[in-house]
Specification:
The protein has about 290 residues and is α+β, with helices and mostly antiparallel strands. The protein has helices at about 30-35, 145-160, 165-180, 190-200, 210-215, 220-230, 235-250, 255-265, 270-280, 285-290; strands at about 10-15, 20-25, 40, 50-55, 60-65, 70-75, 80-85, 85-90, 95-100, 105-110, 115-120, 140.
């Protein structure tokens, strides 16, 4: 996403009753709560920045505007909420979520009951193909109990001995579980690279021919691949990306509606408003008021 001077700051609200058990790769980070956690350099070999277990209680809330790596979360008990495609969506026990990189990442708990979950936060260098190549958020059923055994094995090893050969084996099992979960939604490399590039330039006046040229494919071949993968034609996929970006900007910036429309490729604010309402069932201003 392009840098935006009106972008709001990331939000990290833990509250006094939230407990954490976190390990990070040692990569420099400005967040003190992360720097104070255990360190395991082996994580970086799996493109992992940090992982852990959190028992969250109100007012727990995290909003990251432009996360540079995918985020995987598995709920052990309780129910939390994750922002998926512009809507706060419940994530309950034995469900998992994958949030792709480069997009708004928002999770919170509204219930008085604790929300216990484990997570893996990925990070890849610029130009590096990410381990998880999902381009849309996913929530689905998942065996949180088995995954929890693997995560706890890794965390216990780090807490006790932090031996490389053991942490490596635990991380291989963790990675395998996440890979299996993501498998139905993994994207062909050609499409992943194409739509990642398009998503960085959503304000451009793209045509089907220009998009196909970027992928070194004919328009018809691109139409077939995109429809098979996303269930949408290339131009509908472009519009979907623009609407998701617009929703993110409405939540995490103070930009005027017409500015957000232009950033998402709409010169006419009325066209933008009509298209947004068709996608999200609310006008941009109503959406901003409801979600924030």
């Amino acid at each position: 996403m392009n840098q935006n001077p009106n972008k709001q700051q990331d939000i990290h609200v833990f509250g006094d009753q939230t407990t954490t058990r976190i390990t990070h790769s040692g990569k420099q980070d400005h967040r003190q709560w992360l720097n104070d956690s255990q360190t395991c350099p082996v994580l970086s070999q799996f493109q992992i920045h940090h992982l852990g277990e959190i028992t969250a209680k109100k007012p727990y809330k995290i909003i990251r505007n432009e996360q540079d790596g995918a985020f995987f979360l598995s709920t052990i008990s309780g129910t939390g909420q994750v922002l998926i495609n512009g809507k706060w969506t419940n994530c309950s026990a034995n469900q998992a979520v994958i949030l792709p990189p480069g997009h708004l990442n928002a999770i919170k708990t509204n219930s008085s009951e604790p929300w216990k979950f484990q997570y893996v936060r990925y990070h890849q260098k610029q130009g590096q193909t990410p381990f998880i190549r999902c381009q849309e958020p996913v929530i689905a059923d998942f065996c949180a109990t088995a995954f929890s055994h693997m995560m706890n094995g890794f965390l216990h090893e780090v807490d006790s001995h932090n031996r490389t050969k053991y942490t490596w084996q635990w991380l291989k099992l963790i990675q395998l579980n996440i890979t299996d979960f993501c498998l139905p939604w993994l994207i062909d490399d050609r499409l992943w690279k194409l739509w990642e590039e398009i998503s960085q330039k959503l304000n451009a006046p793209w045509t089907l021919e220009e998009i196909a040229k970027k992928a070194y494919l004919s328009s018809e071949h691109l139409r077939r691949l995109t429809t098979q993968t996303y269930g949408r034609t290339p131009m509908k996929q472009l519009n979907w990306l623009r609407m998701q970006r617009a929703a993110e900007l409405l939540i995490c910036t103070n930009d005027k509606i017409e500015i957000i429309g232009m950033l998402c490729g709409y010169k006419n604010v009325n066209t933008f408003t009509t298209t947004f309402k068709k996608c999200h069932k609310l006008t941009p201003s109503d959406y901003r008021g409801k979600l924030t």
